[in-house]
Structure formats: C-alpha cells, structure tokens
Design a protein that fits this description.
single chain, 192 residues, mainly alpha, Tetracycline Repressor, domain 2, 10 helices, elongated
Length: 192
C-alpha cells in the first residue's frame, strides 16, 4: 500500500464512503468526485481499482483497531473491568467497523480470497486481543466465563451497537453508556 499523503487522503475519503454506503454502492467516480479528482487518476494509486481501495481501506482500519485495542488493554492494567472500559472507549472514538455488513454484504462482492483475508484480519484485530484479556482474567479468577470467544464477540457486537445509539435517545454520555454495558456484562442480570 503506498504510504504517501495523497494516497492516505484517498483512503480517508474512500473509507468514509464505504462506511456510509457499503462496497457495492460506491464507485470510483464517487471517490474521485469527493476528492475533486478524475476517477481515472485513482488508478495511478490503486491500479486494481475499487477492490484494491476497499482492501487497503479495510486493512488499514483493522490494523488500527488491533493496535488501539491492544494498547487500551495494555495501558489499563490487570483489572478486566478497566481493560473493557478502555477498549470500549477506544472503539466508540473510532468509526465503526460494521462487521455485519462486512460479513453479509461486502465480502460477497470482493471475492473469496479477499473475504478470507479480511476475515482473518478482523479476527486478529477485534477478537483475539479480547480473548487473550478474558483468558488472563479467567486465569486470575476475575471471571468464570466458559466461552471466551463468545464473550469477545458479544462485547465487540454490543459496542458496535452503541455506535448507533444517539446520546439524546439514551440520555447519558457515551462513556457512561459503555460503563453501564460493562457493569451489566461483569455483574450479570441475576440478583445475588
């Protein structure tokens, strides 16, 4: 992936369009118009066209998520609740990944090899750091969660849903919303 300022700007614009509309609905012409650039000029930066732009956007996005999640966990110390809060806050500060659309819609349009590659990256970026944190917490006796994979996927899914919640609707700041969600997960719904 080229690492110059122009290509990063192209990826920023393409990322915004893909996030809002999905892979199929975005054309190179749309990306070019948003950049005030002829769409044919985009082939200089992405010779394989829209698919290459999409793959580069998603790779960059997922690698950023992996680095952010790992840093949040590492910087939060050993307490799982603090780690989850840090991860939740970091995730809501970022554009959502929209895994549902990625899996159900976009990957059908990009090809099997590309879909498998993005699936591996998403797993490594989103699930694996949380599974490791949950595993350490279980080993330390902080939690008794049996299915670490399910716990990680549930957490990511719930945080992704929070992206869709408007502060005015929930009547609480996003940080407080994340804290409530984590408390619910950590404490459970059953009275003790």
């Amino acid at each position: 992936m080229p690492d110059n300022e122009t290509y990063q700007r192209i990826l920023d614009v393409a990322a915004d369009l893909f996030a809002k509309r999905g892979y199929e609905a975005v054309t190179l012409r749309d990306i070019g118009q948003a950049l005030d650039m002829k769409h044919a000029s985009l082939y200089y930066y992405a010779p394989e066209g829209k698919k290459q732009l999409y793959m580069d956007v998603m790779e960059r996005n997922l690698l950023r998520h992996r680095d952010g999640i790992e840093a949040a966990i590492r910087d939060a110390g050993e307490d799982l609740r603090a780690q989850l809060r840090a991860v939740g806050r970091w995730l809501i500060s970022q554009p959502p990944v929209d895994m549902r659309r990625l899996i159900l819609v976009d990957t059908r349009s990009i090809g099997a090899a590309e879909a498998a590659h993005l699936s591996q990256l998403a797993n490594a970026a989103l699930r694996e750091p949380l599974v490791a944190a949950l595993g350490r917490a279980r080993g330390d006796g902080q939690i008794a969660l049996r299915n670490l994979d399910m716990g990680a996927v549930a957490f990511i899914t719930l945080i992704e849903v929070v992206h869709g919640v408007q502060t005015g609707v929930s009547r609480m700041p996003m940080d407080a919303y994340i804290d409530e969600l984590i408390d619910m997960l950590m404490n459970g719904w059953l009275g003790r």
